Sequence to fold (152 residues):
Amino acid sequence: MKELLTTIVLWLSTNFSLSPSYDHPRIEFVPPTEIAARRSKGLAGVWLLQPGVVVGQSAQVAEVVSVYDDSTKTIYLPDGWTSSTPADLSVLVHEMVHHLQNVAGLKFACPQEREQLAYSAQERWLGLFGHDLLHDFELDAFTLLVKTKCFY
Fold:
């Protein structure tokens, strides 16, 4: 996993305005119920949802893919997660953006604002393999707008 994380850090720092950090996050594989519980407890971090989740909709446990915890510098991935597909790897890319944002001490106007770069990186990663957020995660442009803008 260390080599994979290092590769992602190099790719992110080369392609985006993120400073590289080789102080990698912890990776924990946990049941989806634990990821959902961490999300619902207002974890000081961000999460990625599986396809079909509408903002404001009550998400079922199985719909939560991953979460990053700023305070413990931990990425939580579901038991059984593999790095075998571009979509799987893109989840890790997304969460690594949040880790690099966190260790760099970047500040955002709202939690949604920090999602802009994470989704951009995820989309570009998927594009390397002829994939995209729309087809792999059913995330269209309007959904991404809502997930990445501060509306207050």
In short: Residues 2-148 form one domain. The chain is about 45% helix and 15% strand. The first strand starts at residue 26 and ends at 30.
